[in-house]
Amino acid sequence: MLPENMCFIERDWLSANHVMFCDGDSATLIDSGYGKFNDVTIEKVDAALSGWGHPSLDRIVNTHIHSDHIGGNAALQRLHAGCSITVPVDEQPALVNWDAPEQMLTYADQEAERFAWDDVIEPGQTVSLGGESWQAIATPGHDMGSLVFYSAKLRILISADALWETSSGFVPPQAIDPEPLAAQRATFKRLAELDVALVIPGHGPMFTDYSGALKRANEKLELFATDDLRIAKNVVKGMFIYSMMWRGGMPVVDLPAYVARIGVHRDYNAQFFKMSDEGYADWLLGEAVRASKVRIENDAIVSV
Ligand SMILES: [Zn+2]
User: Fold this and answer.
1) What is the pLDDT of residue 1?
2) Residue 15 contacts residue 8 (beta carbons within 8 Å)
3) By CB count within 10 A, which of 5, 48, 82, 98 is most buried?
4) Could you report the per-residue pLDDT of 95-146, keeping only the tens digit for each?
5) What is the 3-state secondary structure (H, E, C) of 271-296?
6) Cα 170 to middle of ligand 1, angstroms
């Protein structure tokens, strides 16, 4: 399905997928996973490099700066001397203001090692990956600075979190910020203009039903657009489950203090749910248990 000098590495939910390219003795990696799982990332990247006869990893390109896409940047750069890091041009302010709430790191109880970037890509710019020309396309919405990469010749779209097979990365409630939802709508319109035979998404397997995916993602966006509370519930549930998955869990008794301390829970509860810390903690835990993402074992929350 893919040219020989291109490699897709599918990860689990916690780390975004990787795409790698080989051009002679030089390789490029798109997105570097969640930092907690750098050992897996390093192993998978090494396996791809050795499959190509050990080209040097010269470049990491990030589609956007969420923790599950940038977590291996610093570690990989340490391992591969001379490897540069390229980020979307519009992500620079957030990287300068590292760990601001919008980046959803500390604010959402996620971690990423800070890194220095060497280069930027602008929307519309053509990037050479594996000897082919790929166009960088701005896909604001889920992340306002994010880029996807499109090859008209190969009819392949590397869609990051702008489009998955049945949905797309979350957008915040309109009461928090109305801009991302409108931007995501425009992003779907822009993507619909492309002639795509194969999508390599940021999460989940590759897929070919491009128009079907756009339709499903659009419908889901519009369904949520009418109901801010539903978006808010989805965001806090998703963030909580994500944190429990990478942490492994925590004592049940610690949860009220946790939701009071972690920004996304504290702020969303104050704005949307208006419960006591204990009430919100109970509700959140119940939702995660009902979704079969955590269970309670000996008074501890355990990731399933
Ligand atoms: Zn994302």
Assistant:
1) 82
2) no
3) 48
4) 999 999 989 999 999 999 999 999 999 999 999 999 999 999 999 999 999 9
5) HHHCCCHHHHHHHHHHHHHHCCCEEE
6) 8
Structure tokens at 266: 């504290």
Q: If you measure from the C-alpha of residue 64 to the centroid of ligand 1, how many angstroms do you get, rounded to a whole number? A: 7
| Cα 112 to averaged position of ligand 1 atoms, centre (Å) | 13
pTM, to two decimals: 0.96
* CA angle centred on 262, ends 252 and 228, rounded to 5°: 100
Q: Give phi and psi for 16, each to the nearest 5.
A: -70, 155
3-state SS assignment for residue 28: strand
For residue range 255-273, list pLDDT tens digits in order: 999 999 999 999 999 999 9
Query: Which residues are found with C-beta within 5 Å of the ion, ligand 1?
Result: 66, 161, 169
Q: How far is the CA of 143 from the centre of ligand 1 (A)?
A: 6
Q: How far is the CA of 223 from the centre of ligand 1 (A)?
A: 20
Contact yes or no for 63/147 (Cβ under 8 A): yes
Round to whole Å and give the CA distance between 148 and 164.
Answer: 12
